Amino acid sequence: MTQSRLYPRTALAVLTALNLLNYIDRTVLNAVQPLVQAEFHVTDAQVGRLTTVFLICYTVAAPLMGPLADRYSRRVIIALGAFAWSGITLLTAFVHTYQSLLIRHTLVGIGEASFVTISPTFVADLFPESKRGRVLGVFYLAIPVGFALGYLIGGYFGTRYGWRAPFYVAGVPGFLLATVMLFSPEPERGQFDSIRETVAQASGGFFRDTIANVLRLIRNPAFLTATLGMAMMTFAQGGLLVWMPTFLSRMRGYTLLQANKLFGAIIAIDGTIASLLGGWLGDRLLSRTKGAYYLVSAASMGIGIPVMMIALFSRGPTMVPGIAIAGFLLLLNTAPLNAAILNSAGAHIRATAIALNLFIIHFLGDALSPWLIGKVSDRSSLEAGFITTVIATAISSAILFYGSRFAPPIAGSAQYGVTHSEVKA
Hints:
Elements: H1 3-40, H2 44-71, H3 74-90, H4 98-124, H5 132-139, H6 142-161, H7 171-182, H8 206-218, H9 221-251, H10 256-285, H11 292-313, H12 319-331, H13 334-343, H14 350-364, H15 369-379, H16 382-403
Helix pairs in contact: 1-4, 1-6, 1-7, 1-9, 2-4, 2-14, 2-15, 3-4, 3-7, 4-14, 5-10, 5-13, 6-10, 9-10, 9-14, 9-15, 9-16, 10-11, 10-12, 10-13, 11-12, 11-13, 11-16, 15-16
């Protein structure tokens, strides 16, 4: 294998591994929430607030990281961010109050924002545009597998050695991978884009350029509909991922270890298949319609609504299959929607687009849903709180069906061929 072919695959492997550790660290808290509540004597709303605060800081930091990455070395920013969250993860050993745990989650959110904001743009420049969905499917395998491992690691180590122990798993490997990333070459921005930008990057200063680019993205219907649809999907996914182990142990009679093993296994299997299939299906359907990435996600979300009802409100033998199928349909959207976001923006503002996308989807999505579900649970039940996730799924499907008409034509799509000079936002 030539060096030019080896490097993209090596870089993809390193970035995917870092993404995996990122989501393991993020998910461990979900697996040990009852243990945290028992030690600190906090309510469901308070433990849900840990995830909410993490995501608020994450979303506030993301808009700052994106414009920096559009101007400076993405490789260096990714590595520094990985060093930061890995170090903070190890500091969990010194957490002995609810307030200090809240601060720990705040700082981790800032560190992770740099990696998650920038790494997709790095991946997009490693491979041809026609393979973008499949490549992102590999990269975003880290989300379901990381979630699954977080549940499994948290459930195993947390119940045996205390809730702090599982957080150490991602720390040391994160330092090693960050070091590898620091010395990796950086690909040329937009080198594989089939539609070349005809508008030069502005030069009115960092903040003025950033504001201009954000306004341009907000006026871009392809970006806006993909982002709003993803926000509602994130609301549903985030709420379910945070509360499902607690739901199974509290409402369905599983032990905490059994709940984490069951849900972790479902997410691992669902996510591995769904992430790869979603990216492949989106790429394949581009030959028929430019809106393929939107339509794949819209259809899976729509089909998932009745299945979610069975999964969340059934107490019989259909519950576990319902959870498995609903999880698969929700996770099918990760690669197509991220490909849609990347394709909606030009290479010179792509990191800003990802940053703005992250800000919106988390602000409207999983920064709100864990706390809201916890608040409803304190007043009623977790089942009642989960109704909000079904409503969000229906809204997401409707937005994405509408947004498919705005998808830009790219190489491989049926509508490509007459708009090579088209300007992306």
